[in-house]
Amino acid sequence: MFAAAALALTLASCDAPKEEDTATESSGFIGSYTTKDTQGNDMSVTLDEEGSATGTRAGDDLTGSWKAEGDTATVNWADGWVTKITKDGDSYSKTAYKDGKEEGSAVPAEKN
Fold it and tell me: Where is the composition biased (Polar residues) (predicted)?
């Protein structure tokens, strides 16, 4: 019975993501991006390895946090907006959300 329980715990831990797996997944997004905001103005976004995000939009400085979710980095800005940067092959796109609703449409994002 103890052997069965130990085996079950061992198998369950195989399915759990390891901390380094999560770091590897998110490391593909670390860096700076240039894109456009919902009004078509220049916007920059920088994602660091600690999970912090900074940026500029229409002359305003932005701060927030981010995390990788599959092929998307989700940025939660301090002002309540959410930016999602999605990787598709070798390219990226950016979508913006306010109050849980998509604002505008996806626009290209260039990783610098």
Answer: 24-44
